[in-house]
Amino acid sequence: MADIQLFINDTEVTAKAGDTILAAAKEAGIEIPTLCYDESVKVYGACGLCLVEAEGVPKLLRACSSKVSKGMRVSTQTPRVEKARRIALELLMGAHQGDCLGPCTLNCPAGTDAQGYVKKISEGDFHGAIEIIKEKLPLPASIGRVCPHPCETVCRRKLVEEPISIAFLKAFAADEDLKENTYRAVAHAATGKKVAIIGGGPAGLTAAYFLRLEGHSVTIFDAMPKMGGMLRYGIPEYRLPKAVLDREIEEIVQYGVELKNNVRIGSDITLSQLQADFDAVLIAIGAWKSMPMGVDGEELSGVIPGIELLRRVALGEKPAIGKRVAVCGGGNTAMDACRTAVRLGAEEVYVVYRRTRAEMPAEQIEIEEAMEEGVTFKFLTNPAEIIGEDGKVKEIKLQVMELGAPDASGRRSPVPVEGCFETLPVDSVIMAIGQKVDITGMDGVETNKRGILAADERSFRTNLPNVFAVGDATNRGASIAIAAIGEANKAARVIDGFLMGMEIPYRAPIVSEQTLTEENFKDRDKMPRAKMPCRSPEERKHDFCEINLGFSKEAVMEEAKRCLSCGCHDYHDCKLIYYADKYGIDTKRMAGENERHEKEQKLLCIERDQNKCVLCNLCVRVCDEVAQKGILGLVGRGFQTVIRPEFNTAQTIECCKNCMKCVQACPTGALKML
Predict the structure, then answer these.
(1) 64: three-class secondary structure by DSSP
(2) Is CATH 3.50.50.60 the classification given to domain 194-288+436-499?
(3) Is the pTM of this model over 0.85?
(4) Fewer CB in a 10 Å sphere around the end CB: N or C, the chain?
(5) What is the Cα–Cα distance from 565 to 556, expressed in whole angstroms?
(6) What is the pLDDT of residues 181-190, one digit of tens each?
(7) What is the pLDDT of residues 381-411, one digit of tens each?
(8) What residue spans define the domains of the chain?
(9) How far apart are CA 334 and CA 351, in angstroms?
(10) Phi/psi of residue 23, each to 5°?
């Protein structure tokens, strides 16, 4: 056939007479999206993604079926085309019911592929597990011990009995890796770009790790004697042995990250100096100041901020707190403070909290273990006054509270019971009601109304040209370590783009999610959650040694096998989600009520999830035209249409087992090899 010259996106292209626009574009290396096209089968044109605009033609053309003509001028990325593709994708996603990623991964602020590494652990492949974990998190042994594991709160295994022990599984795999030293990521070649990071906590260390892997020179400046931030100075040794943290930091250093400790910004070096000396600066200073309680007597000797107590103990001091201690607060810092007070020799330790245990934000295991160690909880009480004698704490007066109407967060607001008080004789009062940011030295960086550093939530940029900020010091303030790590990981990607001359603000990937209930898992066998063995209260409360004894290999593998594998096996190769993400669609805009289908395995070697099927009909056409078996077919009409095997004899099943062409052709993960 004679050659034809045409233009696609103003590029002259040569094609054969009779070629489609799609074929001509592909030959020229120009991508036109499609889900239902495969060159091995006849054109079907079902998905509507390959629409293009041709000069002089009023309607959009389907590139998969429209033939080229001499001098034709085709545009593949006009606003009209992109709008049409976006609508097509929103319609397809509206009918697509499936989980791209498991709820565990989606609820992890760092986006760690929990399902992926849990599967590796179930197979005893701890090296593979760490390879997956370190794509997002360079401190898994430390974080696995202390994370309040938001991944577990949404784990669907709780719809059967109890969530999987995801955090402890991560810590185990990381410990195994530290023993064997098996995993080393490969850093890119040096770029010649330099980054200064202010703050050596979990956020700073994470950003340093990922920026160094991209080939940039990284220096961390930290005010404390050692790196680690709140992991070192805010988490007690009995929860996180600092030898573990040291090993993980050393691994980051081995990539060439430079550490500079005992350096205070504003006095030892200024932010403007760092701006001048480095190509980019990342502020990750955390929130190191305790919030005041705002009660009379707060200035008395013996009133100690919870963060200060934990920091002093971490530095090797033994603060004199006396025999009777009241800890004010209900979060994990309050739990760390009260349990530290026990280990410092206090004989009576009280936790004062204005709501009930049900509303307490601390981890339930922390509350239980504190009670086991002899801590007394004074629920529905609030500090009213700290009473002193000779300038030192003598008593704390507590206002008795009751729960009233729910507040903005949905929790019932505590209100005072008029005239009802209780007084406790105490030697010390530890304040653990929250943390705030100390922005000393951050000259020129804009702050928000709360006095916290203001940074764009997508690009992490501050108002200063080459200065970025992440973590507890920004926007919403103090949160959990894994949240700071998640921001640091994203910021590292943004900073890498900035250093290489590209503006790449972070955008959350688009995913498909579904809502399931206990009914969906009623056929599952009950398999209780593995219980972490730990030292007895009588033994552990007298020292700061790690309280958890750890799982065995057999125990972690069995625990990992409880995973329901919620996320899609084909997520990374799914064309539907690739294009949905590329075009930034609204996955909910075209969503409607869809009939749910059970997964079926009639062909034994292939699992079919009709919920994920978008009726591109590729599997049917491949089976008919390529395999020439005609085993699959469309059943039903309209919105009730589904694809099913038409028969499933032993001969058919054997044929499918040796073919699998339909699975390979499926663009959405609706088919899975068993």
Answers:
(1) coil
(2) yes
(3) yes
(4) N
(5) 16
(6) 777 899 999 9
(7) 999 999 999 999 999 999 999 999 887 777 7
(8) 3-95, 194-288+436-499, 291-433, 595-673
(9) 8
(10) -65, -40
